[in-house]
Amino acid sequence: MRIRVQGAALCVSFCAGFATAQPVDNSVASRSGDARVDAAAPADERIETLVVTGTRLREQSAQEVRIYDRSRIEHSGQTTVADFLATVPEVSLNSLESTYGATTVRLRGATEGSTLVLINGRRTQAVTGSAALVGFFDLNTIPLSMVERIDVLPDGSSAIYGGEALAGVVNIVLRSDFRGAEASLGYKSAQGTDEKNVYGGAGWKSDSASLSFMVSYSDRSALSGSERDITANSDMRRFGGPNLALPFFGSPADIYSAAGNLPGLNSSLAAVPRGSSGVGLQPSDFAATAGTQNYGSYNAYQDLLLDSTRTGFFLSAEYRLRGGIELFTELLASEYKNEGATTPPFFLQSAVPATNAFNPFGTTVLAAGVVRGAEQLATFTFHDDLLRPLVGARGRLGEWDWELTALHSQDKGGWNIGGQPNGAALSAALASSDPRTALNPFVDGPMASPDVLASIFGQSNVTHWEGDSTLLNGFVRGAPLRLPAGRLETVLGGEYEQSGLERNMDADRSAKAAFTELRAPVIARGNELGAMREVLALKVAARYDNYSDFGARTTWQAGIELRPTESVLLRATSGTAFKPPTLYNLAAPSSSAAFPVVDPRRNGESVVVQAEQGGNPDLNPTTSRSSALGVVWSPTGMSGLVASLTGWSLRIDSGIKLPNPQYIVANESLYPGRVVRAASSPGSVGQIISVDATYINFGSIREEGIDAGVDWNVRSKAGRFSPAIAATYMTQFEGASAPGGANVDRLSRASSDGIFAPRLKATAGAGWSPNDVLKISLAGRYVGRYYDYTPTRMLGDVWFIDGAVEIALGKMPSSGGGPPGGLKLFITGTNLADKLPPYATHFRGYDIYNYDLIGRTMFVRLQGQF
Length: 866
Prior knowledge:
The chain is built from twelve helices and 46 strands. It is globular. The relative contact order is 0.13. By secondary structure, it is mostly beta strands. The strands form eight sheets. The protein has a 22-stranded antiparallel β-barrel. It has two domains: 3-222 and 306-341 and 381-416 and 463-581 and 619-658 and 694-865, Maltoporin, Chain A (Beta Barrel), CATH 2.40.170.20; 227-304 and 344-377 and 423-457, no CATH class. The two termini are 31 Å apart. The protein is 8% helix and 47% strand.
């Protein structure tokens, strides 16, 4: 049979979908719309073309999958995949692309790289080159305008999908079912930034073939940290907080003595006076600023939202041969670029000799502060190109369906960080006695001519990467046995993957896998109409993965579905998952640098050591175990109502981190051989010489919580109403930073490593559609209270209100000559109350994980179907 998942049926109407998404409810598939059969399809063409996320079986597993359809995406007002996912209660993620140069999705606070990203139900390459240091697939490579729906499975699922599905799966389904043509033009604006969006698509179908393609383009302008008060000035004392500004970014600079007081002053430091010409100065010119410093922050100089362009192309085609065999292909190509201002050149107490043409102190002094005039040289440019072709075939062999696919994924890119100093040229300019070539740190203004500054700070830090993955997958699916309660559904399959990564290193690996899924109905009974209704079913899955570098891993998953009545589904799952060390974790190039540490074994002695960082070929995979127990209620007497409640737990062990050298020194006994000491006499401890701070397995996380949701789609004489609410409430989030170490409470406590989550995150809203012309929705996104990075101050307890209006212009009453029937106008707004982040003691000055700088946005889009 041809079975096509109906994304719109799995969610409620567009309005309720705007507030939340309905969990998949397969308690009564024929009523809820879980899957529908195209009865008109010829018998030899009845091939399953799409399965629900979380299983390769014909029916959804006992796991909860939340589905966000095209209507929800269009009415969210968001324009990137990452920004849309930030509105989902079970998702927490980094809101700033500029933090890593890449963006991922994080489910229930779990660390970056713990969620597997699928495209059209198939694995992406584990790591794109831009995110190699952290280890995840960059969501920026997928334009949101090309997305049909997003499925979120917030549980480990390695038994189904293999490695990387450590703490959940996000399946991004691209648009591929165009009938005729469609085009859209949109403009989005906020204070200090705007964005233009355009896309077009078309499709064609016949009895034996189909072809669909789509192109998209977006262009967003930068948002500078100087354009928001919270980042323009990092002195939070105006809000009752601390001064987070630093003298290294003072403007003008600060001057320090090399020893004792500055000549002619009663202090060892002085700020360069504002308005200083920098020429002909005397020590007495610094008398009024002696003992003071100018402070500043790099936030004000950086573009925290970069100027970016995204271009995408997606093609899909199918051809049906005689005998029921179906050939299909996909091609996804995208290009993502961004650029903007980054951290300007600055002095870190650099020596200014007495020979400097502008030095008024007659001796060597030290300077700290921004190199004025060189700010425009500090630029960041980034690009990444993704190419993902796929070919496949599917068909039937007796009672079995089969499918074979070959998928290749490749990304190429790089970044360029300008404004880097030439060390020799910098030293020469600071020591120069010629005013034409000397740097002048004593001026309130440009420290040299543009040509001189460019000759010193015209260097660039350039990084290139290339990642690729070739994936061969095949499986058969059928029901070989008929049990008393129904058919035993079975999936058997295998997979082979070859992947590589180049980023100042060159590494590759291969992996082989075999997998199986079984679903057995155990009890069934007849209803009042005489039809059989499934009451109890069991589901198991297992997978064996064998990697060429670290070895083999077996994972399993088990679930149970109990339907005591037609309107109630009870379900439970438990399973194991893993994430292999990435190629960068294993083979990153080694580097060594001086690093100050405090030695607890030598009475807190401070010492500068050589710290080595890089890859570690002896790493083990990160492992997890997750469980869930829930209920779904869809009463027959209240059509359109679906409520769910799920309790869940997650345990992650042997996380992979690049540790701070001080952490290794403080936990020396737990990591033997990583601290090298000088020889010492018996009974004494030698001084530390070096520390091995390469990637290491350490730490564990324990999480527990409850997901709840209610959706109701009500039809009345006044139109269609769709109230909805969804929430994730965490009851435990703690972790140890070392094997056997004490657990640290991370629940509602902000942490500088980003591994934390508010206790409560929720969405609530309602939609109203009085007729076919107008649809209106209003939704709130709530972030619960949590401690700032330095307790006991609290953040959170905030609502962000979004709204959307859709007008079907082509259906409006018209006296003739009206717009085409498929023309629609969308007006969406996010953060309508314009709530900007409060200060936090994060280095950015606000919490980047739960707030953003953009504020209120308005998005107007015109869409036409032809």
